[in-house]
Design brief:
Elements lengths: L1 E9 L2 E9 L3 E5 L6 H9 L6 E6 L2 E5 L4 E2 L2 H4 L1 E4 L11 H6 L14 H8 L14 H14 L4 E5 L7 H17 L4 E5 L2 H7 L2 E6 L2 E6 L1 H5 L5 H6 L4 E11 L4 E6 L2 E6 L8 E6 L5 E3 L10 E13 L2 E8 L2 E7 L1 H7 L6 E6 L4 E3 L4
Parallel strand pairs: 3-9, 3-10, 7-8, 8-9
Antiparallel strand pairs: 1-2, 1-4, 4-5, 5-6, 10-11, 12-13, 12-15, 13-14, 15-21, 16-20, 17-18, 17-20, 18-19
Helix pairs in contact: 4-5, 5-6
Length: about 350
């Protein structure tokens, strides 16, 4: 159990938080400058709060009332930074073992070979950091944090510096760590897909304040997540039940009320909840459903409103009780007569629907 009840001011910015964390993997999701890294730095002891208290498993880490602050080295928290910091003069093996003399003896010690096997870095042990690729370097940084047998693992956007291909390869390693080790994890990110893949609970952070918290699938499909979704260029997030997954047809059918939404095939069970993301600009509006085209999704809905944003027209559309944002040009709006109450059809290619978590 981690209790966070403190304030920290940096210049004109103030982080203020008052929450208790009990889940194994907790994610903090928010844009740059929202206070995510400041939060982790206060938990780790790199920064001291201005007032309040931090408690972990009944131990006081910081208390302004008691005038107590436990030094970072005595907290025994592992920290993985964005840049994958390693000691340049030490080999991979030496980096991993660096924190072990400070680790406790006994059953809580994590076996180095287990870490090496899970992260698949056995062939890298005798290399130096300047001989590693970006993905290898980040895996070694994670291994070093685990090597000290931490009581709590902190990760500050560990995949941000990697390209999309490397991110997709590293993410499964983080999932295996979650499954293999009984270590609570605080994970900071601005990636919705990482939250969906890893977190048991998520917090939305904006301008130093927690604006919402909850189970990721429900939280990120709620209106409170819209600013975060828009930050990543995705206006629509839905969590829909799976009807059937057909490898033969190459599609998974999701239930959108009485209508069906086809997405790219992913192996999953009927009844499972699948979170998806759709950009407003990837939805086409039509007045006639009888169109011969390759797009698999033609959904009937009603326009509930429209707003002009930076020269774009953003329609608010009701499809089976789900409100979606659809972007059109002013010219299209005028020619099609798209007004509040208009019933029309919304065309979405299956390839334009992003699966936020597969399986």
């Amino acid at each position: 159990m981690l209790k966070l009840s403190f304030r920290k001011r940096l210049g004109n910015f103030q982080l203020e938080i008052d929450h208790t964390i009990t889940e194994k993997v907790t994610a903090f999701l928010g844009p740059s400058g929202s206070g995510k890294s400041t939060l982790l730095n206060c938990v780790s002891g790199i920064l001291n709060p201005d007032d309040g208290e931090l408690l972990f498993s009944g131990q006081t880490l910081y208390s302004s009332q008691q005038k107590r602050c436990l030094p970072p080295e005595k907290r025994r928290f592992g920290y993985v930074f964005q840049e994958g910091y390693l000691f340049p003069h030490l080999t991979v093996r030496q980096n991993i073992s660096y924190g072990r003399p400070r680790s406790p003896n006994g059953n809580n010690q994590i076996d180095s070979n287990t870490i090496i096997d899970i992260l698949e870095i056995g062939e890298l042990l005798d290399r130096y950091p300047n001989q590693l690729s970006g993905g290898q370097r980040q895996r070694v940084a994670i291994a070093r944090a685990l090597g000290m047998s931490p009581r709590l693992l902190l990760m500050d956007e560990p995949l941000t510096s990697l390209d999309a291909g490397l991110k997709n390869r590293i993410l499964p390693y983080l999932y295996h760590i979650k499954q293999a080790f009984d270590i609570p994890l605080l994970y900071v990110t601005h990636s919705i897909s990482e939250v969906m893949a890893l977190a048991d609970e998520a917090f939305l952070l904006s301008d130093g304040q927690i604006t919402a918290r909850g189970e990721p699938h429900e939280l990120l499909a709620s209106p409170s997540a819209l600013p975060v979704a828009q930050m990543t260029g995705v206006e629509n997030i839905l969590a829909l039940p799976v009807v059937v997954a057909s490898e033969e047809r190459g599609v998974t059918e999701l239930a959108l009320g009485e209508q069906r939404l086809m997405v790219s095939y992913t192996e999953t069970e009927p009844g499972a909840t699948m979170p998806i993301a759709i950009r407003a600009r990837d939805i086409i509006v039509a007045m006639d459903p009888d169109l011969r085209m390759s797009a698999r999704n033609i959904l009937r809905g009603t326009i509930r409103g429209a707003a002009v944003q930076a020269g774009r027209v953003m329609l608010s559309v009701d499809i089976e009780g789900h409100l979606l944002s659809v972007e059109v040009t002013g010219d299209a709006r005028e020619q099609l007569g798209l007004a509040e109450g208009t019933v029309c059809y919304f065309i979405i290619k299956a390839s334009a629907i992003n699966l936020l978590w597969e399986g």
